C-alpha cells in the first residue's frame, strides 16, 4: 500500500539556524503534498503544500521542494524561532484520492 | 469563518462501551474525513464521506462506523471499545473537488479504561 517515510524523527537547532525535514512517498500517482504543524495538545495545522506541477513553493520563512523523479519532498524553515518548536508531519494523497497518508512526524526543538 | 468543530473535547469510556463523536465541517465544505492519532504517531485514516456517501475506508475493524448528515456534519461511532482505541480522533473537512486541502478540527481525546 501507499507509504510516506519521514526523517529525521527529532531535530534540534539553535534559534536563527535553518531546519530541513525530508519525506519520501511510494505512490508515483501522488500529486499533492501538504505539511502540517502540530503543537502539543492542538490540532494539525496546514502550513504549506505543493502540487506536482511545481518544484518549489515559498511562504515567508518556510519553503517546500518536490522531486517527483526521486519521489521525495522536503520542508525548509529558515531563521528558526522558538515558536517553530512543534511536531511537523508530511503527507501525500493515496492513489484513490480519499485519504492523506501521513509520515510519522518530526519533533523540532528550537532553542534560544 | 468558523473552522472545523468537534464534540466532545474529552471523553472517558470503559472497555466494551460504545462512543459517538461529532464533527461540523467548515461552511461550504462537503467532504469530511476521520483520522485516529495515537500518541507519538501521525494521523491514520479511518473514513472519508462526501455528499453523505462513504468514499473511502481505512484499515479499521467493523466496530468503527460513520455517517454524514444532509448538513454535511458527521458522526463517528465506535462499538465494543478496546484499550487500544484510546487516541485523539480528528475530523478534517475539505472543499468540493478531488485531492483538496484538508483542514482539521481540534479533535476528541478518547480514553478507554
Alpha-carbon distance between the termini of chain A? Answer: 41 Å
Total DSSP helices of chain B: 0
Low-pLDDT residue intervals, each spanning 5 or more residues of chain B? none
On the 0 to 100 scale, the average pLDDT of chain A is 94
Computed over alpha carbons, the radius of gyration of chain A is 13 Å
Oligomer: heterodimer
Mind describing the biggest β-sheet of chain A? 6 strands, mixed
Kindly name the structural category of chain A: mainly beta
Order of helices and strands of chain B: EEEEEEEEEEE
Query: What pattern of helices and strands is seen along the backbone of chain A?
Result: EEEEEEEEEEE
Percent helix of chain B, as a range, is under 10%
Tally of extended strands of chain B? 11
Biggest interface, chains and residue tallies: A-B, 25 and 23 residues
Helix segment count of chain A? 0
State the helical fraction of chain A: under 10%
Relevant terms:
A: 112 residues; mainly beta; 6-stranded mixed β-sheet; B: 113 residues; 4-stranded antiparallel β-sheet; 11 strands
Structure notes:
The complex is a heterodimer of chains A (112) and B (113). The relative contact order of chain A is 0.34. The mean pLDDT of chain A is 94. Chain A is mainly beta. Chain A is 0% helix and 56% strand. Chain B is mainly β and 113 residues long. In chain B, strands 2, 4, 5, 6, 9, 10 and 11 form a seven-stranded mixed sheet that branches. Chain B is globular. The chains are: A mainly beta (112), B mainly beta (113). The A-B interface holds A 6, 31-32, 34, 36, 42-46, 49, 89, 91, 93-94, 96-105 and B 33, 35, 40-45, 48, 55-56, 58, 90, 92, 98-99, 101-107.
Question: Short description, anyone?
Answer:
The complex is a heterodimer of chains A (112) and B (113). With 112 residues, chain A is mostly beta strands.
How do the helices and strands line up, and which of them pair or pack?
The complex is a heterodimer of chains A (112) and B (113).
Chain A: E1 4-7, E2 10-14, E3 19-25, E4 32-38, E5 45-51, E6 56-59, E7 62-67, E8 72-77, E9 86-93, E10 100-102, E11 106-111
Parallel strand pairs in A: 2-11
Antiparallel strand pairs in A: 1-3, 3-8, 4-5, 4-9, 6-7, 7-8, 9-10, 9-11
Chain B: E1 5-7, E2 10-13, E3 19-24, E4 31-37, E5 44-50, E6 53-57, E7 64-68, E8 74-78, E9 87-94, E10 103-104, E11 108-112
Amino acid at each position: 500500500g501507499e507509504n510516506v517515510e519521514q526523517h529525521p524523527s527529532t531535530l534540534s537547532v539553535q534559534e536563527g539556524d535553518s531546519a530541513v525535514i525530508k519525506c519520501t512517498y511510494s505512490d508515483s500517482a501522488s500529486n499533492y503534498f501538504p505539511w502540517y504543524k502540530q503543537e502539543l495538545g492542538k490540532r494539525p495545522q496546514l502550513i504549506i503544500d505543493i502540487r506536482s506541477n511545481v518544484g518549489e513553493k515559498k511562504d515567508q520563512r518556510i519553503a517546500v521542494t518536490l522531486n517527483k523523479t526521486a519521489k521525495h519532498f522536503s520542508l525548509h524553515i529558515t531563521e528558526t524561532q522558538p515558536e517553530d518548536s512543534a511536531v511537523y508531519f508530511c503527507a501525500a494523497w493515496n492513489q484513490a484520492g480519499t485519504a492523506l497518508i501521513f509520515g510519522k512526524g518530526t519533533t523540532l526543538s528550537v532553542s534560544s | 469563518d468558523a473552522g472545523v468543530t468537534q464534540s466532545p473535547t474529552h471523553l472517558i469510556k470503559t472497555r466494551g462501551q460504545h462512543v459517538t463523536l461529532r464533527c461540523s465541517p467548515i461552511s461550504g465544505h462537503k467532504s469530511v474525513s476521520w483520522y485516529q492519532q495515537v500518541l507519538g504517531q501521525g494521523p491514520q485514516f479511518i473514513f472519508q464521506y462526501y455528499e453523505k456517501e462513504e468514499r473511502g475506508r481505512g484499515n479499521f475493524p467493523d466496530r468503527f462506523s460513520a455517517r454524514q448528515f444532509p448538513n454535511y456534519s458527521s458522526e463517528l461511532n465506535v462499538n465494543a471499545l478496546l484499550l487500544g482505541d484510546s487516541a485523539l480522533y480528528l475530523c478534517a473537512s475539505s472543499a468540493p473537488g478531488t485531492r483538496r486541502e484538508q483542514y482539521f478540527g481540534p479533535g476528541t481525546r478518547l480514553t478507554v479504561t
